[in-house]
Design goal:
Distance between the termini of chain B: 44 Å
Number of strands of chain A: 0
Strand content of chain A: under 5%
Helix content of chain B: over 70%
Radius of gyration of chain B: 18 Å
Shape of chain A: elongated
Oligomer: heterodimer
Strand content of chain B: under 5%
Order of helices and strands of chain B: HHHHHHHHHH
Distance between the termini of chain A: 77 Å
Mean pLDDT of chain A: 79
């Protein structure tokens, strides 16, 4: 018997041949006693593989795993909450900066002046100061946001 | 509707009921697969836990139009193969060192159990290389057809067929080397 046929016998017993190959093997096995005996051996082996003792996870492992996953889900939820809280805080701070600047400008009469002329040097420096201040605050908030997953909820 | 997809959607929302449903349906098959592939109960337990943690972390990446089990097993497989590569950087196709033969004063109960065909086969399978154990478990315990098997192993169909053949012949050689053919037939 050739090695090629032997390969077919093992795979036939494993149900891993396509229908045409399986038909060829069947035909060969009907005519060849040696191959029929070997095919029967392979069949017993593959049937035995399907009946091996099936290990199962212990109850303790399953319970411990579920507990660990629940903790992870809680952490994930907390991180999402922290991100939302920080996003709101940053947006609120930026809004307050813009509003306060406009209010101040209005109160000091600069708003009317700006409508007719480009921003004067004083107002430009003021705006630059405000932007720099809030950019720093935004960066600090972002850095804090990255650290909070390890430290828990911040608000 | 597919309960796995419903439970995956629940888990994505952070609902632990979804986790309980997925675990109850897949825990036994997943553990058996990991134990066969890794060949060590303690490592299989650790990888089992890591798998579910990764599932919870990455559930947003699961494509709900596809079945859940292949995705779950792919997560588990990646973790298991990472562990095996760290432990034994050489090829995963290689067999572990042959076990010492059982001593005459071994536990009588263990010997009685080992006489059973299924236990002996499991023992012989445990002595194969990880990738051989994996392909046999997927084909005969998970009952995957060859195309599904190839997909699960992420290899072309002829490669899956070759791996299955190689695992079967190695197992047969091992059984014949350990006992007369009549004993395992």
């Amino acid at each position: 018997m050739s090695a090629h046929v032997t390969q077919f016998l093992a795979l036939a017993a494993a149900g891993a041949l396509d229908p045409a190959e399986a038909a060829c093997v069947e035909e060969h096995v009907r005519e060849c006693g040696a191959c029929a005996a070997e095919a029967a051996e392979w069949s017993r082996l593959t049937e035995g593989l399907g009946r091996m003792p099936s290990p199962r996870p212990s109850r303790a492992l399953v319970a411990h795993t579920a507990e660990a996953v629940e903790e992870r889900l809680a952490e994930r939820s907390e991180r999402a909450w922290n991100r939302a809280a920080l996003g709101f805080a940053v947006a609120f701070a930026w809004t307050m900066a813009v509003v306060s600047w406009l209010l101040l400008d209005l109160l000091t009469g600069e708003l009317a002046l700006r409508l007719d002329h480009p921003v004067g040097p004083t107002a430009a420096w003021y705006a630059a100061y405000m932007i720099a201040g809030w950019l720093t605050a935004g960066a600090a908030a972002a850095l804090l946001g990255r650290r909070t997953p390890e430290e828990g909820r911040i608000a | 509707m597919d309960p796995d997809r419903d439970d995956a959607a629940r888990l994505r929302r952070g609902d632990t009921v979804g986790l309980a449903g997925l675990m109850s349906r897949h825990q036994d098959r997943l553990f058996r697969y990991l134990l066969r592939l890794l060949g060590d109960e303690a490592v299989a337990e650790d990888t089992f836990q890591q798998t579910w943690l990764q599932v919870a972390e990455r559930i947003a990446r699961y494509d709900r139009s596809r079945p859940f089990a292949p995705w779950l097993f792919a997560v588990a497989r990646n973790l298991a193969l990472d562990h095996l590569r760290r432990r034994r950087p050489e090829s995963l196709d290689e067999r572990p060192e042959p076990e010492a033969p059982a001593t005459p004063d071994a536990d009588p109960f263990a010997r009685a159990v080992a006489r059973q065909q299924g236990a002996r086969l499991a023992e012989a399978v445990a002595g194969l290389a990880p990738l051989d154990r994996e392909v046999l478990s997927l084909r005969f315990e998970e009952d995957l057809a060859l195309p599904e098997l190839a997909e699960r192993l992420a290899v072309p169909l002829p490669t899956a067929k070759a791996r299955l053949y190689r695992a079967l012949t190695r197992l047969r050689e091992r059984l014949l080397a350990r006992a007369p053919a009549e004993e395992w037939r």
